[in-house]
User: Fold these one by one.
Assistant:
Number 1:
Amino acid sequence: MQYRHTTLWRSTVKEGLLPLTLLLLILTMSTATSTLAQDINNGRALYITPLVSGQFSCSNGQCHGPSPANNQNGIQIAADDPGRIGLAISQVAQMAFLKTHVTGPQLADLAAYIGNPGAVTGTPSATVAPSSLSFSSTVVGSSATSQQFAINNTGTAALTVSAVSSDNAEFSLVSTCGTIAAGGSCGVSVGFTPTATGARSGTITVSHNAAGGTSLVALSGTGAVAAAPGIQIAPSALEFGSVLVGSFSGSLLVSVNSMGTAPLVITALSDTGTNFPLLGGTCTVGAPITVGTSCTVALRFVPSAVGAQSKTLSISHNANAPAVSVNLTGTGTTGGTPTAKTMVEYLYAPLNYYFITSRDDDKTALDKIADFQRTGLSFPVYATEAAGSKAISRFYFDKIAVNGSRGSHFYTLLDSDKAALITLNPGNLAAPRLPFNEGIDSWAFLPVVSGTGGSCASGQTPVYRLFRGSVRFPDDPNHRFTTSLATYDAFVALGWDGEGVNFCVPQP
């Protein structure tokens, strides 16, 4: 508060400038000095506290300074005279903001303090620490670890805490704070139990008798969905094809993928019987499967009779979903010569891309495309399973070469290759650069020794595998399969990687 010269009161009344109603108010406040209860301690609190947000307090250095005893800007003219203060509020522009923010009793307390600041017996001062609490992400319906804040009395008189409240029921309170001695403190415990997902917030209000009347603590937290396991399998069916009664097929794999936000646990694998025995794999009942990883279940077909046979593999788990099932089918056949067919090689000249297939519909389609030409190289394979043979699976990598302008095929009968490729694309998604399993192309035999220097059993012909790798041929991968050793050697000389014997086929 900043007061003009002491003649302000006299000149204003004498010249008739003071409205009658204001004059009556001031006279009332002047006479009230002797009737209103005067609280010098409250007067000091009013003096040092900004009564309007964004404005100075009386004790600010630009107003009257830390103590009215210094008579900065003539404040002593209002000593024990609330009417003087009211007059100044109505006439001094810098104090006009107080017109509706002070009461008669407050003016009396201020005037008493200005008149005798040395009579202050002590005042409480309230602070809270910390002034904000942030809770970590908490599952909806569960409770976070509680946190605490302190109410501190840094003043010289007892601090009375009349209430501690939260405006959001998700933030609970435990408080026994009442009267806090000067220099003392009291702790309040705050809990967080979200009722909805997403950002949650609230405010704690501490009501007290210190300057300002309240202290605030900001609250924040996040409600989260409970972590839960999820499951996906691929494929959902295994077709073993035709297998001689008394022999057995090669193994096929089911990939079990942990797709949720908590580890997946396989609790049971159903009995698939003697015709489709479980061979193992990497899945273990009862062992957790880390989120984002997978394991495999291996099976084979051992027909006990001629004709179509089927079974269902049921995989029980801890995810919030029914057990998943894999349909198993195969056909038992009698002895005799298995059906043969021819694996034919094509070259797509525009992109210098080699491709093989034994599928008749592929050959019909490619023979109608001018840019696809037969190279003249081919070799026999089996259309149905022969004793001791294994299925050749065909995988396709879309948009993996020449800046995404073409794909590439890969053939293998090795279980290790198949497992590795299935792991790269457990859902068997038709997506760029992922190995898409196009199923069984044909049947052939494992080599006696695979790789460089490998060999096949008597009566079988080795199929050599070449790879045009990225080191010598950047962004242009391609596998080539041939029974011609001369072709193999020639392409190794051109920089292709010679990977040796990959599988074996019957002699023409």
Number 2:
Amino acid sequence: MNSEKIGKKLREIREYNNLTQEELAAKLDISRDAIIRLEKGTRKLNLEEFKKIIKFYDLDMDSFLNEEKQTNNFKGIILAGGSGTRLYPITEGVSKQLVPVYDKPMIFYPLYVLMLAGIKDILVITTKEDQLSFKKLLKDGSHFGINLSYVIQPSPDGLAEAFILGEDFIGNNPCAMILGDNIYYGSGLEVELKKAIDNANSGLATIFGYQVKDPERFGIMELDKYNNVISVEEKPKVPKSDYAITGLYFYPKGVSELAKTIKPSARGELEITSLNDIYLKTGKLKARLLNDGYTWFDTGTFESLLDASNMIRTIENNRDMLICSPEMVSYSNNWINSDELMERAKVLSKNSYGKQLIRMIEKEKNNE
């Protein structure tokens, strides 16, 4: 892992722990200037500093240094099927996941999450009618530095069906799945994703919880006082908690075989809750809670679609930056270089999205 990647990871861990650069410098007994340069990747860690950081954050040294190795066997799935009836008449002529959320098509947001987790091999599951449009937009993924494959879901027969449709793609590898209409944002998100990656590589499944005001609309996780999962339930009339199970799931190898054992529910679907319950009963289901500092949207309604667009616009305008951008995370991951990013930016240069990419490249060059 090079100095730039180490610096980026150190910054993310610091922000995840709600520490300022001054606070961290004081705790590690090194200067704030050193912290700034370490996080920028312009200064190398010496061995003693590295040991201090590992001890202070209680990190696993091998996982920290071999992060890329942890994800190079990982597969990702975006489930972008369905008819989107809750968004009619908008989605009568276009897939819900291709509808814009402020300055990006909806599917860019879940794609960004998988890429942020370090996953490069991604399967996009679509309807037969919409697959060509997704291929036109995303192509083979090479302009993002990733590998995209496609498969058709003949009918919306449940979320767990994704692992059966994607069985050949997944093979004997761990896999993450995200729903094509889910948006996640938060400064510590990458750290949470890496913990889920570590769980999957250790044979554990991970679900992500988010507190909601109307839990009866969602799959729900019940937790004990230590945030261990006690039960999972699909859209209960009397919810046992207000933690919704969001549309992001990480599973160890073998998930396709387990998915094939699920019986259809009363509504005729292979429920993801049933799959999670299998892992729960064998003591292999973990939860990560997205509390303060995180935002999650299920953008399947007019209201949530507008709320998400307004949030993205507000953050980008106030901070004069792009967020949830596949191009940005690809560049940050060193999957594409500055020339490749500039080529992509020029395609988008007639709007603020492309202009922000160009500004970022120019800023990077000026800092060199």
Number 3:
Amino acid sequence: MVMFKNSAKAAPEVPQAPGVKMSTAKVADNSTNKPIIEVRSLGTYFSGLWVHKNLNLTIYPNRIITIIGASGCGKTTLVREILMLQSITEGEILLAGEEISKYNIEDANTKLVLSQVGMMFQQGALFSSMTIIENVMFPLQEYTDFSKQTILEMAILKLKLAGLSDDAYFKYPKEISPGMQKRVALARTLALDPKVVFLDEPTAGLDPNSASDFDELISNLQQQLGLTVIMITHDLDSIWSISDEIVYLGEKRVLFHDTVIKAAECKEIPELYKYFNGPRGKLAKVARINSVSNQF
């Protein structure tokens, strides 16, 4: 665990909101786990519109969750609110039992709380004026009291975890491929050893082979580091390949939260069923079945 310059009780499980389709068959047994994230009766209002209203969501640790929904349904807004990058209108958000929605982003203790989460943005958001190693060192320099040598060693470790060879460390982002840039962004996201990692369209802009390799990297790191990974993605191949659970947003709230298989079978929500059973969805499902079959 990283020590920071500035320095709970378990929260009860949120009751299932009316209308949410969710089965009791989960990928992991939740009975012995405490939620890592809880969103309770969330309301988000701006520009004269409710983006979220009575949104409830409970996420348990050590799994990969994908948030999907139509454009404008509030997927990115929800993530920004959990990351405290955007205020909420009503309700509450808890991280590891701590109500973070009441915090001021400028409070010293907030940095410690937010160290438990990391965000990889869609385009990577790497600093173009910094080398690869400097990009990964940056959050460690900003938020820890470690020596320069320790920070350098930790940054190298994260880059190795992300599959970067040492000949790339002193290059600039523009000098490496988009796939390598994604790996650098992921390494920087992991720099402070977060418990929860948010990924915004992680495979966007990658060719199919690079996207598949990146999916495999995410899955491996999730298992090795015991991460909770929350993705926003439209990549059906990624969803079928590595997702444990699907969260479907619609009508300003969570309409469905369950496994990928259950999502593909959910005829009660026509838009969700069509999403997984349209031409692209069927191809992705067949590809996943074939991939699994080839492992045996």
